[in-house]
Write a structure and sequence with these properties.
CATH class: Mainly Beta
Length: 139
């Protein structure tokens, strides 16, 4: 009976162990959820950033930017993810995401659900008021 109980506890603990990730596991090229853009996530010092690498949007310029001087800037190369810090527990937090479709910037967290799937949560104020997208790793 003790062996059976020990085996059951071992199996239960293996099933609930979370995947552990390293800080740089988020780096690479990601395909957006609508499959129209590729985002390159990279590290500078101890923070993570993301730029638009390519896209198939009809708009080629940042026409919705609140700064009129930037409305003629190309979307390719635009930095839309800024200042993320790895929390040591599988989440990149305290960053922001810029939405070129609206010209607005939101607070954001990123979480790897597996090595090739990234959950992006943009929100205003608290995470409850926001939207989640799932990006897929390209390389």
């Amino acid at each position: 009976m003790k062996k059976l109980m020990l085996l059951w506890l071992l199996c239960a603990s293996l099933g609930t162990q979370a995947q552990t990730y390293q800080a740089d596991d988020v780096t690479g090229t990601w395909l957006t959820s609508d499959k129209t853009g590729q985002i390159s996530i990279y590290k500078v010092n101890d923070k993570y950033y993301g730029k638009i690498k390519s896209g198939s949007s009809k708009e080629h310029f940042d026409v919705h930017n609140p700064d009129p001087q930037k409305r003629k800037d190309s979307l390719i190369g635009l930095q839309l993810l800024k200042n993320f810090k790895f929390d040591g527990e599988g989440e990149w937090e305290k960053g922001t995401i810029y939405d070129p479709k609206s010209g607005k910037t939101y607070s954001c967290t990123m979480t790897l659900t597996d090595k090739n799937t990234l959950k992006i949560r943009g929100y205003v104020g608290i995470s409850l008021f926001g939207r989640t997208e799932i990006w897929t790793r390209i390389r």
